[in-house]
Amino acid sequence: MTHATNVRLVPRKQLEARGxxxxxxxxxxxxxxxxxxxxxxxxxxxxxxxxxxxxxxxxSGAPLSEPPRFxxxxxxxxxxxxxxxxxxxxxxxxxxFRAGELGERHNPEFTILELYRAHAGVEAxxxxxxxxxxxxxxxxxxxxxxxxxxxxxxARMTVCEAYAQFAATPPDETLRLAEHDEDRFYxxxxxxxxxxxxxxxxGLFLTEYPATxxxxxxxxxxxxxxxxxxxxxxxxxxxxxGFGELTDAVExxxxxxxxxxxxxxxxxxxxxxxERFLEALARGMPDSGGNAIGLDRLVxxxxxxxxxxxxLSFTAxxx
Length: 319
What we know:
Radius of gyration: 20 Å
Order of helices and strands: HEEEEHEEHEEEHHHEEEEEEHHEH
CATH superfamily: Bira Bifunctional Protein, Domain 2
CATH class: Alpha Beta
Strand content: 15-25%
Oligomer: single chain
Largest sheet: 9 strands, mixed
Number of domains: 1
Number of helices: 9
Shape: globular
């Protein structure tokens, strides 16, 4: 006979706050002319990001000829297909699934807020993002006895500037590490850059990631060594991952093939290309900006915590 282990009980006020924040998010985007959409969770390609692994869906009794499906790690491909079909401002609050992620800020199943704007770049998306954060939090985050200012406009710092200031690494060396020694690049980020960002008393956008670290973002026209990618850090929490979107189907296919080869080299599962997504790019997706926000993390910060466990009814290890 087995006995269930005790699990924590999330305070009712936390779940009430979560519900209120979700309503605030929907009201925010509705007021700005965004259309809320829904896309499938079981998809033919869950994404080829080298640092993410997916859950494969096994259908009992399905014919062997049926192509595999995976739980989505992000609704990005399908939402960009909608952009190519003429939708201009869209957002979605949905579940995403990433294998092997469990901790203070990770859960294998989590809630993602994804938004896209056609005919807009990263600056427009960053403005929408900082205004959303300010609306949800009231302009400040209170964690661990600290008050973090998140009133717009939030500070911006490029990745090369951050590595130079916090890791004593010159820009050329930062770019070299990102391309040729990724382990060292991320070790400096985790050990030196992110701890320094966590000490700031205000939110900050980290911008212009090395082009090798942004497989779905377009390269900056004035400096193709870096990409139009940004992340927002608040109280040490990486809150989002946004892009000026790559719209060139040929270049995107080349990047995907590179990622497939690299996944194979690392002994990781190699997922198929999403040909319908690539076809949509070839048809003509307008210049666009997008962002993926960890909604659980945003709710946690708004309620005074940096741990998503405080705002999830159940985590994976409690099931």
